[in-house]
Fold this protein.
Amino acid sequence: MNVFAVDSKKPDTATDKVPQKVLVLFSSYYFADKADKMLGQYKVPHQLMPVPPELSSACGLSIGVQEEYIEEVLRIFEVEKITPSHMYYYKKGKEPTEYVRRSC
């Protein structure tokens, strides 16, 4: 068995594990880490991951969230004083588009 062979059926990055989602980017590791901890405490499904190179050339962390949870996430961020820098719809291999919050 060749341990270096690439299995095309397996995801090659964390961003492949979930279909299109909203990626929340932060201005610092501190906010990304705080967001990860808070979403865990509130039991909101999410994924802490590196910012994909399509979105930033700088190193950083982002939170991936299914769109159905994004309003809950934003309410938690407001209560916990967590400010995202950017939000995008993202799926690996597709052009990211900026997330625009829907108004009621």
Q: What stands out?
A: The helical segments are 29-41, 70-80. Strands lie at 21-25, 47-50, 61-65, 86-90, 97-98. The mean pLDDT is 82. The longest strand covers residues 21-25.
